[in-house]
Amino acid sequence: MEQHTTEATATSLPVVSTRLYPRGALDILSRDEVARLKDASSGGMHDLLRRCALAVLTSGSASDDPRAAQELYPSFDIHVEQHDRGLRIELTNAPAMAFVDGELIRGVAELLFAVVRDLAWTAIELGEDAWQPTTSAELTEAVFGLLRNARILQPTEPNLVVCWGGHSIGREEYQYTKNVGYELGLRGLDICTGCGPGAMKGPMKGATIAHAKQRRRRARYIGITEPGIIAAESPNPIVNQLVIMPDIEKRLEAFVRIGHGIIVFPGGVGTAEEILYLLGILLREENAQLPFPFILTGPTAAAPYFERIDQFIRLTLGEEAASRYEIIVADPERVAKRMAAGIRKVREYRIAQKDSFYFNWGLDIPLEYQQPFDPTHEAMAALDLRHGRRPQDLAADLRRAFSGIVAGNVKEHGMRRVERHGPFRIHGDPDIMEALDDLLRAFVEQRRMKISGEYRPCYQVVA
């Protein structure tokens, strides 16, 4: 990395302007690729690039309001320039917290390059004038292409554990996620999360100590996010491989395609969305025999949280759905042992099916789970949350309901819709609506909805 730095005082906070010459996935590009990347970054996606870059540069921020960083650094800007040596990134009035003695922190620089790489690749390969995937197979190919371009896919032994959980959790729960990560790391398992704070950071932090003890020098701490989330949840500093998927559906598919098992810690609506997504897929007949270790865990104080989640799943999706996961309370070692044993079964199954270790091609994901859901007020009101449907179909609409609430909580476009038109209205059978309302109220009471500020519900449950 080569850079030129100048101090600036355009805002009340210290800022730095600099030039960067990327390394890694952006260091060897043709002139045509550089020109297309420059055009993409300076066109309609420039504001998105600026917001995501600012999120990376303010890594460690305690806010989950996507507008907070923009208000603190209104004069920040980023430009991708064509240069004789290939690509040059220019930062203007960047947050000084990302620098040490005028030099951009190396890990922050790597994440910044990942932002440029992924947003530009999406604009070039999946933009309006490019190939538009429409079938299930084509959408999976698009997910594969994004992950391969980000150098996430590696032909290694199965060892990647996806950890889901809330960004707004208490100290006891955070420490528990670290303890589980530590036990996973001792067993040679790598970590993949949504890349943010809280339950996304804890497992990585615990695993780093264990990996150091085991002298594991090439450990992977993968963060998978999407543009609307990264702007609200800056990547935690432990992430060493970041990939930004175009939308939440491709993000979720990326998790289940590359992960060999999933652990869920306490969280809010985003975590509930992830649970429902995976259960809906595992309930499909095509995936009935597929081994996929799936564990819900937390400290003793979190037991009531998982009881609520379990009751909600049994009411809405049935006993078969509940049989696809295991709940373990206050036992990090047992969680790690169960996960390691489950991943061994995954390895045996992949070998028998001649499927790859690094991308789960054998998992059947239907089109309705892959198509992006735009949470407008009309779309949220049209969700069919009634009994009598196939569990996987009901799970798909329940997932969309939680996805809309996530958008209203932390995504800028969703927050603006709620501010303009009022809360989303969610309809369904009375018992489902009552259970959903109880679950959401518990999330609010336990402060699992937001980190910063008082929470104002962005939804209304209507029977």
What is the compact description of this entry?
Helix 2 (46-57) runs antiparallel to helix 4 (106-125). The mean pLDDT is 88.
Polypeptide structure, described:
The chain has 463 residues and is an alpha/beta fold. The protein has three domains: 2-125, MCP/YpsA-like (2-Layer Sandwich); 145-353, Rossmann fold; 373-462, no CATH class. 46% of the residues lie in helices and 16% in strands. The protein has helices at residues 31-42, 46-57, 68-72, 106-125, 136-149, 171-186, 202-213, 227-230, 248-258, 269-282, 303-316, 319-322, 332-353, 367-370, 377-381, 391-410, 412-421, 430-445; strands spanning 2-8, 15-21, 77-83, 86-95, 99-100, 103-104, 160-164, 190-193, 221-225, 241-244, 261-264, 294-298, 326-329, 424-427, 459-462. Strands 10-9-8-7-11-12-13 form a seven-stranded parallel beta sheet, sandwiched between helices. Strand 7, helix 6 (171-186) and strand 8 (190-193) form a beta-alpha-beta unit. Helix 6 (171-186) runs parallel beside helix 7 and helix 11 (303-316) runs antiparallel to helix 18 (430-445). The N and C termini lie far apart (57 Å).
